[in-house]
């Protein structure tokens, strides 16, 4: 048979051999490096809350608002980024996100007033939003045969940043808390340059070439987007408040400052294997029951931790909470990205990601308002767990009727 009659390879398959395979692996490794910094930029404010409260003479609600602005920023450009994905290659926006992160971290590092700090925080969050909307579809398309696994590895790289955030901040406090933000700025600049050089030498997938209508693409997948938000929306809203105030919560349980910081580190450390396991299981298990099982388990463990006081029980439940909640992230990304077709993946994922991030961005502020209003952490967390449990039961009943996609 002549070459002209041979069928062309599937769009998402590697069309060249080993050289392009190696190029994609190098690009994937560089993306893991950037996602490490992107997530560090979002998480680093949690262990800095006590510093901000003392240095800027603010209350818990204002401190919670500073953290919230990072997540509002992360949500703000996700939909516009999705529109840009219908016009430009995904890796161009990844490069833009790295550049924004480098500049905004420098802005935050030079803050002398609360508004100045809030601006830097917002812009750092904005960089993360641009990154995740552009990089996650790119990662799934680089290795289309194992979406769950690569999303898990990519997520684990970001989770390592969450694990080292508290000890990293503690180390920089011996010099100046601003040093942690300067480190992010320099690191982001260097890794962005490396991604640029690597992408130039790699044949990239063209799976998104037919995705040219943001609104039409998102509307055509409204059932899938709605289902993913119903499962993960309230969950991440609650989680965002929980982890940003986790140190203060542990202190309310009678733990020392150092031990409370260690507990926050445990929450994130448990997430590293959770991303690997969660992503791998997302490739193997029925998607909706698996996701509901994760959320239900998180609700049970969150309620349980409000009923215990002993250090052993707090440590055990902290590890379980950290593992379970972080298994949700690769699972929900695999559900959305692995189910969406090429023609709508970028636009529909941008719509989902934008609303999802916006839904969680107010978590810290709302929790801060309740705590400042006189409610105990245990009361707020227990009520949140009950709400999640009711949501899981309702969604499970709907899924049994076969009405949820996937």
Descriptive account of the structure:
The chain is an all-alpha fold and 406 residues long. The longest helix has 29 residues, at 114-142. The chain is globular and about 55 Å long. α7 packs across α15 (311-339) and α11 (246-252) packs across α12. Helix content is 79%, strand content 0%. The protein has 18 helices and no strands. The relative contact order is 0.15. The two termini are 40 Å apart. The protein has one domain: Up-down Bundle (Growth Hormone, Chain: A).
Features:
406 residues, mainly alpha, globular, disordered N terminus
Q: Please summarize the sheet with the most strands.
A: none
Q: Quick check: average pLDDT?
A: 85
CATH superfamily: MFS general substrate transporter like domains
Question: Which runs of at least 5 residues are low in confidence (pLDDT < 50)?
Answer: 1-17
Estimate what percentage of residues fall within beta strands. under 5%
Number of DSSP strand runs:
0
Q: In angstroms, what separates the terminal alpha carbons?
A: 40 Å
Tally the structural domains.
1
> What gross morphology would you assign?
globular
The secondary-structure class comes to mainly alpha
Provide the helix percentage: over 70%
C-alpha Rg (nearest Å): 21 Å
CATH class: Mainly Alpha
CATH architecture field: Up-down Bundle
- CATH-defined topology: Growth Hormone, Chain: A
Number of helices: 18
Please provide the ordered H/E string of secondary-structure elements. HHHHHHHHHHHHHHHHHH
